[in-house]
Amino acid sequence: MAQAPEASQTAAGQEHSIVSQTLLSQLLTLFRTLRASPDWKRILGLIAGVVVVIALTAGAQIRLNAWNQPFYDALAQKSLSGFLHQLVVFVFIAGVLLTLNVAQAWLNQSLKVRLRAGLTRDLFGEWLKPKRAFRLAGAGEIGENPDQRIHEDARHLTELSTDLGIGLLQSTLLLISFVGVLWILSQGIALKIDGMPISIPGYMVWCALLYAAAASWVSFRVGRPLININAERYAREADLRAALVRVNEHVDGITLDSGEADERRRLDGDLDRIIAVMLRYVRAVTNLTWITAGYGWFTIVAPILVASPGYFGGDLTFGELMVAVGAFVQVQQALRWFVDNFSNLADWRATLLRVMSFRETLVTLENLNGEPRKIEIAEGAGDTLGFEKLGVLSAGGLAVLDDEQVEIRPGEHVLIVGRTGGGKSTLFRAFAGLWPWGTGRILMPPQARTMFLPQRPYLPPGSLRAALTYPLDSASFTDDEICATLRRTEMGHHEISLDQVRNWDKELTSDELQTLTFARLLLHKPQWVFIDEMVDSLDEERRKTAMSIFEHELPETAVITIARREVKNGFYTRVLKLHLTDEVTGERRIPIGRPPRRAIPSSAGFAPLLHHRDPME
Questions:
Q1: How many other C-beta atoms are found inside a 10 Å radius of the C-beta of residue 28?
Q2: What pLDDT sits at residue 7?
Q3: What is the pLDDT of residue 229?
Q4: Is pLDDT above 50 for 186?
Q5: Is 252 exposed, middle or buried (0-12, 13-18, 19+ CB in 10 A)?
Q6: Which residue in 73, 166, 191, 440 could disulfide with 319, CB within 3.0 to 4.6 Å?
């Protein structure tokens, strides 16, 4: 979708303002989103269970660390009875820890499921609010590949949040628990300088803090680029996925045009961009591994080196040395949580940015540029549809109706005629409230039941019955009603396939797809129907059938058809002309061939959508 520079800058500025929000504000938004979830009580229960299990695990690990002293003292003293007794104690402690580990694993996985359900349902709701999905497509880069953000990014965010949150909580409790143990054990360690013993309160605690702080600072400095690299990696992966889906959906046309080589070049380009980002990712992870792996290897001897003055000075027994080593390891492992998880933290931060910026864009989409809508859609007086000085902004200019005041009553059949590229499909979208940019007013009748028939109708996945009754539940209609509708629209041969689940969008012919739309009309019985050139593409017999439906079954239904040429068959009671004018002078344009691309001012709000040729025009 081509964009003007002003439009690109507008969309980029909106996304930058969202991305630049503080981490705290994004976390608060995520919390409020989950709190509104129907699964919130279950999420709270699972979080409470995690806290309890982690607290019990920390207590059991303190007991296990204390067990080191009698066990290793028994070994040093060669006491067989003490050794066997401590083995029994170990089996009991290990059994408790094993049970707690299994419980934590279950709580961890269950929490991931509930968090994902809550976040994804919220994104579903925000994305599919009336007209938002269409408008998001014109919001610039932030509106590209919403499927990736809702499906993959939301899943990844909830899984990372659960793992990192549980890990942080566990490390925090272990740190609080073992700092006290390590502080007490530090009292038995004295450093000797020139034969003079010097005791430093909390000596091993300070050593553990300095050791972990140094590694965390270096890890942050080396691994910081991973945040932006991960964000770019996800964006490029989404582009490739969208390109693959596009090729798969249009494989017939690509094959008929022998366009495989061209599509291969496009896919190769998308893949090359991913590979370039991945190579940067590999280099960044490799650099970070030097720090994390080196830190891990040195940790094997670091606690013994720190505690060795107390052991060799004679103040600590071998068992007490192992207790001190175990406590030091627990403290520094808790403190090195940041080091071990920096890559995951960078990944989490990038994913949080993508999901929260996407959600924030959905919520603020109506005020993307702070401008009100320019076409006013209001409720008119009486049971009529009216247009007042209506004009729609399109790529070719401002498309306006010849009649400044139009009033359409129930049962009227009105044809709006416009040239190719003259804004016909844009006008159709304006009637539906999808395209707010233009001039004038649209006055809708109170509580009007309307249906919009685009050039290519949408069929949801599932059975033919569901496609016929869409968007209502198929249970809203009886079998007799549905079968009678199929027979009336000359599609009775599909009655036996009503409940078969197939890809009907591809199995039905183009004429059958459009005829199916008229079958929907018979079932839903709308008061107002807007048609975008669909009737023109039907064969003669199906066109007659469609017209007869309005004359016999739906005589009170008003029909507004937008087409390229005037049809003189007695069906339409009025013909309105649509023409292009210059936005500044108001003079009429007569487009010859393809209208040039024009730069629409960014204040129009949805400028990205104004700068591409609509294939439906």
A1: 12
A2: 38
A3: 86
A4: yes
A5: exposed
A6: 73
Q: Report residue 183 as tokens.
A: 């502080």
d(CA 270, CA 243): 8
Classify the C-alpha dihedral 505-507-511-514 as positive or negative.
negative
Whether 187 has a pLDDT exceeding 80, the answer reads no
Maximum alpha-carbon separation in the chain: 116
Counted residue by residue, the chain has a size of: 617
CB 437 within 8 A of CB 392: yes
**Amino acid 429: pLDDT:** 86
**Residue-by-residue DSSP string for 505-534:** HHHS-HHHHHHHHHHHHHHH--SEEEEEST
Please report how the helices 203-223 and 318-335 are oriented relative to each other, as an axis angle in degrees rounded to 10: 30
Q: Is beta strand 413-417 parallel, antiparallel or unpaired with respect to 376-379? A: unpaired
pLDDT tens, position by position, 236-260: 887 888 888 878 877 777 777 677 8
Contacts of 502 (CB under 8 A, 6+ apart): 464
| Contact between 408 and 553 (Cβ < 8 Å) | no
120: tokens are 């994804």
- Retrieve residue 70's tokens: 């009698």
Tens-digit pLDDT profile for residues 250-294? 777 777 767 788 888 888 888 998 899 889 888 888 888 887 777
* Cβ neighbours around 89 below 10 Å, total: 14
Does the structure show a pLDDT above 70 at 612? no
Contact 108, 50 (CB under 8 A): yes
Q: Which of 38-52, 316-330, 449-463, 595-609 has the highest mean pLDDT?
A: 38-52
Report yes or no: 342 and 220 within 8 Å, Cβ to Cβ: yes
Among 213, 183, 211, CA closest to 199: 183
Which tokens in the block code for residue 488?
A: 């009336």
Q: Is the dihedral of CA 297, 299, 305, 311 positive or negative?
A: negative
Residue 353 Ramachandran class (φ > 0 left, ψ -120 to 50 alpha, else beta):
alpha
d(CA 319, CA 67): 9
Q: State the pLDDT at residue 373.
A: 54
577-580-584 Cα angle (round to 5) = 135
Percentage of residues of the chain with pLDDT beyond 90:
6
Full-model pTM: 0.58
Give yes or no for a contact between 558 and 413, defined as CB atoms under 8 angstroms apart: yes
Alpha carbon separation from 389 to 197, 254, 386, 562 (Å, rounded): 95, 43, 10, 18
Alpha-carbon span 31 to 34, nearest angstrom: 5
Tokens of 379: 């409720």
